[in-house]
Please model this.
Amino acid sequence: MRGRRRAPRPPIPWRSPWTPVVCLAAAVAAGVLVAVSSMAKDVTVIVDGRAMAIRSFAGSVRDVLGDAGVSLSFGDVVHPPAQEDVSDGTTIEVRRARPITLTLDGRTSKHLVTSTRVGDALAELEISPAAGRVSAPRDGTVPLSGMALTVYTKRKVYVVTGATRLTSRTTARTVREVLRQKRIDLHRGYQVTPPLGSFPKDGTVIMVTAPRTVQVQPDVAVLNWQALAECESDGNPQAYNPDGPYYGMYQFSLPMWKAVGGMDLPTAWPAEEQTYRAQLLYQHVGGRWQGQWPHCGAHLF
Model:
């Protein structure tokens, strides 16, 4: 008696003729993935102090920056250089250029800096940290769009008023500002060189000259002013008498000195200026010298 036929066995997958092909393809794909994965590089990109991690297949610094969305402009600083190759673990630093319009001691120029702080930008421009006056806080930010900076450095200038010579370390913008700092009051007619509105650069000598708008009459000019000075002060322009007080060759009181246009103290001016003011005083009192020089006035004649 014949038995029943057995049901056909299900096909065994690994005995399929395609099995070796599939396995080979899987192995190749895995190998490719491993190879490709080994080609990717972990790179750190720092832009103006801010860091970002980038995984890139790019071969150069420029291409990595492109993958990171960082574009380069004129004046930007990149380290390593943009054309260099990158490897895994490379750090790329980008400092972007910022335009600065600099007015230094009255002179304006244009520059590019990569610093993000005002103080660092000044150092980059080789301006001393001790520079006197800056138009922006030193810890302020320099925007990417740029900014204008005005700097007045400390300068040594000299002020000459008569026989007095003053030295000033100043950041003043004008001659007028220097005179205000030295508390020198200007009266009508006084001459100042250089002009009040000019910039006092280092080494400037500012001359303040009292006006001589009043003419000395000929009959006054021929009087013996030297004899009067010898009697009053031994002819000493620096003479001082605390009793008055009285000052200079002709022993001016301060009210009389200022009444004839004198500035500061009489002793701050040379002999010629003191004589001119004494002659004006004689004219101012109408020749009544007795009230001004009661003991020595007779020497004028």
Summary: The chain has a mean pLDDT of 85.
